[in-house]
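Severity: low
Component: inverse-folding endpoint
Summary: output formatting inconsistent between runs
Steps to reproduce: submit the following structure tokens with default settings.
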């Protein structure tokens, strides 16, 4: 066979795709069902909390500002990520349905990474909002208004969707013939492309690119924005003024810590010591599942506008119940 025939043969080789994957998940861990109960509780709290934040921002006109457009997008990404991840985990392991079709696996991979990358990107947008609000307060509404923030958030969603679609395309070009067992708790990108028996260097590059774009770059940008914020705060003469300005950043700093610190710790542990598959799965699944639960709690507890609104709704509810009870009492007395 000459070189031309060989080249033609290589071009015509079909791509091998397994009909099903087997999600390995936790193996041999005693009482693992308690962990899944914990994940189910985090799912319920995350869904209720993020839906509450979304509804509050959507229906209260006083919260229709650039900052809360960013918070709305973060809550939407949290809601999407927790629904893309935890229900599938519960179905897979609680009901022992660990087989997933090839197309369903790619869909699961796309949505988990699409929403998780949008979380990271939105935190950068919120850091930019705090930077402009504190460093350029007089020009805030000229630089950031509702239209500009909406366009920025739309661009974030569109770019992430495009990049994840490209990631899925190159996964679909792999011949996955080494095994059909995915050593993870969902259709994770790394464990899947390592099953390839053809060249997967482009997939490795995309994985590294995504890590750079959504872990390293966001951290650098957020650190730079807070460096600018601290320099601006140092120019404020009174401690009261500094604390008042810094207080507006507390919620965002807590969100950044809840999302990035677990992931950084996992990366450092993986680089410095050996992590068993079960330890890696538990730590990574917690890093994915916990922030969507914590984010709405952090914003409700640290945002005065949302706390005041919830208090108003609660007081109105109590007042209406009291009025109804008094009307019932008067009716009974008259009868």
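Observed output (run 2 of 3):
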């Amino acid at each position: 066979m000459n070189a031309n025939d060989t080249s033609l043969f290589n071009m015509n080789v079909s791509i091998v795709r397994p009909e099903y994957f087997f999600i390995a998940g936790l193996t041999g861990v005693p009482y693992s069902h308690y962990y899944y109960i914990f994940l189910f509780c985090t799912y319920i709290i995350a869904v209720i909390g993020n839906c509450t934040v979304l509804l509050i921002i959507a229906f209260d006109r006083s919260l229709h500002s650039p900052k809360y457009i960013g918070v709305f997008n973060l809550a939407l990404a949290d809601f999407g990520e927790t629904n893309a991840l935890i229900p599938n985990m519960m179905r897979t392991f609680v009901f022992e349905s660990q087989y997933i079709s090839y197309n369903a696996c790619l869909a699961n991979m796309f949505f988990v990474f699409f929403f998780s990358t949008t979380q990271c990107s939105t935190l950068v947008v919120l850091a930019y909002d705090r930077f402009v609000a504190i460093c350029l307060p007089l020009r805030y509404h000229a630089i950031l208004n509702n239209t500009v923030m909406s366009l920025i958030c739309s661009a974030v969603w569109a770019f992430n969707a495009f990049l994840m679609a490209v990631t899925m395309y190159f996964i679909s070009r792999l011949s996955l013939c080494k095994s059909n067992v995915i050593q993870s708790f969902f259709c994770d990108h790394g464990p899947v492309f390592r099953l390839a028996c053809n060249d997967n260097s482009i997939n490795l590059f995309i994985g590294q690119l995504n890590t750079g774009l959504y872990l390293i770059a966001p951290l650098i940008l957020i650190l730079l924005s807070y460096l600018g914020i601290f320099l601006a705060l140092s120019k404020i003469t009174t401690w009261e003024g500094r604390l008042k300005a810094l207080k507006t950043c507390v919620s965002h700093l807590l969100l950044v810590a809840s999302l990035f610190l677990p992931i950084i710790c996992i990366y450092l542990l993986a680089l410095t010591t050996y992590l068993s598959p079960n330890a890696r799965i538990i730590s990574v699944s917690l890093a994915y599942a916990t922030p969507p639960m914590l984010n709405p709690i952090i914003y409700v507890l640290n945002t005065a506008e949302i706390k005041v609104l919830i208090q108003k709704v609660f007081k109105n509810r109590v007042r209406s119940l009291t009025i109804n009870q008094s009307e019932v009492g008067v009716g009974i007395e008259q009868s």
